Amino acid sequence: MLADEFGREVSGVRVSLTDRCNFDCVYCHNEGLGDTRGPMAPREHEMGTDDVVRFLEVVSEFGVDSVKFTGGEPLLREDIEEIVRRTPEGMEVSLTTNGTMLPGRAEALVDAGLERVNVSQDALDRETFKQVTQAGAYDAVMDGVDAALDAGLAPVKLNMVVFEQTAGYVPEMVEHVAENEGLRLQLIEYMPEIAGHPEWAIDIQRVHDWLAEQADHVERREMHDRRRYWVSPEGETPTDPTDESQAGMVEIVDPVENPTFCANCHRVRVTHEGYLKGCLNRHDDLRPMGEMTRPEIREAFRETVAERVPFYGEYMVEEDGEWVVNEAYLDESTDAAVSDGDDGEIDPAADETTVQSDD
Predict the structure, then answer these.
(1) Using an 8 Å Cβ cutoff, are 227 and 189 in contact?
(2) Which residue segments constitute the domains of the chain, with CATH numbers given?
(3) What is the pLDDT of residue 26?
(4) What is the pLDDT along the chain (359 residues), one digit of tens a residue?
(5) Cβ count near 345 (within 10 Å)
(6) Are the C-beta atoms of residues 124 and 169 closer than 8 Å to each other?
(7) CA nearest neighbour of 98 among 11, 37, 44
(8) DSSP assignments along 311-357, one per residue
(9) Do 56 and 17 form a contact (C-beta atoms < 8 A)?
């Protein structure tokens, strides 16, 4: 398994299959690329089925054991079932979706090998949901969650971005997952550094503090050093607070100005156009994979991992109470390479089957 110079092994990849989406969420940052979403019809610049599968086959050689497919809305890809089915054996496959297309497709995705699903659900209020997503699809999302549960994808994780417009619905959402076995809740801190509108951000620590008061049990995950809160339905006392038939699990994803979060990141991202991206927050670390031959993918992946830097604490450092860019990590050559569409010379004699996992 490859590791960067900070000792962070890359065990997972997050692959955007498209920037197209049938929602227009006000907080969308399109995997850190900004609002680049285009028309609903398939476009030539998206990675093809074989490109995606080839990439996964190569990174599996380096010990990557999980992939999450994202977008845009990944279920707009007609080939998503084929991609899931052709994912290398032993690699955990998950998907983030708005859920509207899960009815009618969830079973086929499970048959293809999908193991987990995250569904965006920002409020249990139709009007707020419509304002946030710019789509009147509340019932379709709820039906999608049911379809995922019926297809055997429990636990289904609900993704809720917490910001000014949704924060008031957190207690209701927590109670919702506490009362409904098979659901989990992921509260995601709003990220103004890539989504804009800093005035929408709230103090996520207040949510932590509130959940700590409600929780029957609190634990930490190694990934991103995230905290998990187990909350039982109101008025009930669980005999086992981590039994999901008795309590709901709520997790907070809080990356903003959080060096501990960044120090525990073990993912590399891939854009829908086939660029490797070592950090969600950065715009200057995109690395092309050329024609996506196996040697090119290997070389680009090695270089991307080697150059990964924790965003907060290294790429951004705190000075006099303000976070500023650490000039040591500004790489103008990367920008030039992306502009030219050239990531450096690739050894044409590279062995198609040999993997170096420690350089």
Answers:
(1) no
(2) 1-153+257-359 (3.20.20.70)
(3) 87
(4) 999 999 999 999 999 999 888 898 888 877 766 655 555 555 678 999 999 999 999 999 999 999 999 999 999 999 999 999 999 999 999 999 999 999 999 999 999 999 999 999 999 999 999 999 988 899 999 999 999 999 999 999 999 999 999 999 999 999 999 999 999 999 999 998 888 889 999 999 999 999 999 999 998 877 667 889 999 998 888 889 888 889 999 999 999 999 999 999 999 999 999 999 999 998 889 999 999 999 999 999 999 999 999 999 999 999 998 999 998 887 644 443 444 444 433 332 333 322 223 33
(5) 7
(6) yes
(7) 37
(8) TBTTTEEEETTEEEE-GGG--HHHHHHHHHT------TT--SS----
(9) no
CA dist 149 → 81, 99, 301, 318 (Å): 18, 12, 35, 44
With 0-12 CB in 10 A as exposed, 13-18 as middle and 19+ as buried, what is 255? buried
Contacts of 216 (CB under 8 A, 6+ apart): 230, 231, 232, 237, 238, 241, 247
d(CA 84, CA 113) in angstroms, rounded, equals 6
Q: Which residues contact 248 (CB under 8 A, 6 or more apart)?
A: 174, 176, 177, 178, 179, 180, 183, 184, 185, 230, 231, 232, 233
Output the pTM of the full model: 0.87
Place of tokens 């709003």: 190
3-state secondary structure (DSSP) of residue 228:
strand
**Are 130 and 156 spatial neighbours (Cβ–Cβ below 8 Å)?**
no
Helix axes 204-214, 170-179, angle to 10 degrees: 40
Indicate the angle between helix axes 294-306 and 49-60, nearest 10 degrees.
60
> What does the buried/exposed string (b/e) look like for 42-52 if buried means 16 or more CB atoms within 10 Å of the residue's CB?
eeeebbebebb
SS3 3: strand
Q: What distance in Å separates the CA atoms of residue 325 and residue 40, rounded to the nearest whole number?
A: 36
Cα(240)–Cα(37) distance, integer angstroms = 45
